[in-house]
Design brief:
Elements (H helix, E strand, L loop, with lengths): L21 E2 L5 E5 L2 H4 L7 H7 L15 H4 L1 H9 L4 E5 L2 H4 L8 H16 L3 E7 L5 H5 L8 H16 L5 E6 L1 H9 L12 H25 L4 E13 L5 H24 L22 E14 L9 E4 L17 E2 L3 H9 L6 E5 L10 H17 L4 E6 L19 E4 L4 E4 L1 H12 L1 E2 L1 H7 L21
Helix pairs in contact: 8-10, 9-10, 9-11, 10-11, 12-13
The structure holds beta-D-glucopyranose.
């Protein structure tokens, strides 16, 4: 029973002082999230392998053996176990399971069974995602989610996976971030199919993914009545540069609606709000098709109205200097590391009245300069939502071991554990030890809040609030 619904608003509590502990409810999940293409290695049959071969990775890298999970995921499961984690999210690679249309690969399903068994043997609860950005080449060539039979194909794949793995997994994530898939693939051109400025197409793609999600939701429940099915939603904070100037506010609200609200609106009402519904049909069958909401929360972007940015609906989206930031991508900053984003994200999806899991949160940070600060403060912000009565049931850090970061290749390192992809050698970063302590204690200790949650601990600033030279931003 969710503690919070729009009819039952939470009582807002003031934040606790630093130096006190924050304990989470019993059974809270402390996990890490991963994705097939980023960790498995030797994925040669999906649209991302073509994207890599076409030289579209900014760093020039290819995923190669990635973290070598297809041969030895168990090495990282051992690490997760040693860290005392009780959950792990992974995805299955459709292009391995159905390499050609209607051809199913029993050996691939067997390997996934072995992985889930290995997790369970280590008392780690698996959460399986069915689509994390990648799919078979044959599906891409048919138009991917714009193909007329996309929902049918996705349902067939889902059924196959659940029939084979359903006894080992109860929590299913249908899609990872339909909003990111739509925006990067059809507006910014950074993900395959690399189309730019096609906002209406992106909205249609997200709608079609919602239809696929609904079909999968019903199929999973038919096969496994006690399953819990949700999706992973990427939530970004869009902050107007100056709230007193209405165009900045309007453009931030518009971007936030399109990015943060569209998929949720479909689940909540079965349609997009006017005027965005003009390009897409109503989807009554999508309404109420989730048992939980997964949230992937990373950063905040600042937004200014700008006539020069017509292809982005006149929004100049940027990261100002002197805010905490992880490492930079090849061409652009990753975003402001903003721990409070978690709270805003939880508040925004709570109206669905479903349990919430933070399914990704992290920062690219090879030297572990700001990850400990980000992690402790994000978990503190999350704790506050729990105290306020929001039904939050888990936190999954992105990610366990450095992995192949899409268009940035190996340049951005999100792992609690550092990886040398050539030797496959793993080295625990400080934040791996910290996260392990948090998971084992089911919360954050007074020492941690004392060390990381004071305003002066915010990276980039010294005690006087002036920019610090101590840390390297
Ligand atoms: C994606 C991951 C990605 C992470 C860091 C998330 O939005 O789901 O696949 O690696 O962000 O960029």
């Amino acid at each position: 029973m969710p503690l919070f619904s729009s009819k039952n608003p939470p009582i807002l509590t003031p934040n606790r002082p630093v130096g006190t502990s924050r304990q989470f409810p019993e059974g809270f999940l402390w996990g890490v999230s991963t994705a097939a293409h980023q960790v498995e290695g030797s994925n040669h049959n999906n649209q991302w392998s073509d994207w890599e071969a076409a030289g579209r990775i900014r760093s020039g890298d290819i995923s190669g053996n990635a973290c070598d999970w297809w041969n030895n995921a168990e090495r990282d499961f051992d690490l997760a176990h040693e860290m005392g984690l009780n959950a792990l999210r992974l995805s299955v690679e459709w292009s391995r399971i159905e390499p050609r249309r209607d051809r199913w690969d029993a050996a691939a399903l067997k390997r996934y069974r072995a992985m889930l068994e290995a997790l369970r043997q280590r008392n780690i609860q698996p959460m399986v995602c069915l689509h994390h950005f990648t799919h078979p080449r044959w599906f891409e060539h048919k138009g991917a989610f714009l193909a007329p039979d996309a929902a049918e194909r996705f349902e067939l794949f889902t059924r196959r996976v659940v029939e084979e793995l359903g006894d080992l997994c109860r929590h299913w994530v249908t899609f990872n971030e339909p909003n990111v898939y739509g925006a990067l693939g059809y507006v910014l051109g950074e993900f395959p199919p690399g189309r730019k400025g096609e906002i209406i197409t992106a909205v249609r793609v997200v709608n079609r993914m919602a239809a696929c999600h609904a079909r999968a939701f019903h199929a999973i429940h038919e096969l496994q009545p006690d399953a819990q099915v949700g999706w992973a939603h990427n939530y970004v904070v869009f902050e107007p540069v100056n709230r007193a100037f209405p165009p900045h506010r309007w453009i931030a609200a518009l971007l936030s609606y399109l990015f943060n609200e569209s998929f949720i609106g479909l689940i909540e009402h079965g349609r997009l709000a006017f005027p965005f519904n003009f390009a897409t049909p109503n989807l009554k069958e999508v309404k109420d098709t989730c048992d939980f909401v997964g949230l992937n929360v990373y950063s905040r972007f600042h937004v200014a109205f700008s006539l020069k940015h017509s292809s982005q609906l006149f929004g100049n989206v940027f990261v100002p200097p002197h805010v905490p930031q992880g490492d930079c991508g090849v061409e652009k900053p990753y975003g402001e590391a903003y721990p409070e984003a978690i709270r805003e994200a939880v508040q925004s999806v709570a109206r669905l009245g479903k349990p919430i899991y933070i399914l990704e949160n992290g920062v690219p940070d090879a030297q572990d300069r700001i990850r400990p600060w980000l992690m402790v403060n994000a978990i503190q912000a999350l704790h506050r939502t729990v105290e306020e009565g929001y039904d939050v049931r888990g936190y999954f850090h992105w990610t366990l071991t450095d992995n192949f970061e899409w268009t940035e290749g190996w340049r951005l390192r999100f792992g609690l554990v550092a990886l040398d992809p050539t030797t496959q050698q793993r080295t625990m970063r400080e934040s791996a030890h910290l996260y392990s302590e948090i998971g084992r204690a089911n919360g954050i200790s007074p020492e941690m809040t004392e060390k990381f949650c004071r305003p002066e601990a915010r990276p980039g600033f010294n005690r006087e609030g002036r920019e610090s030279t101590r840390r390297n931003f």
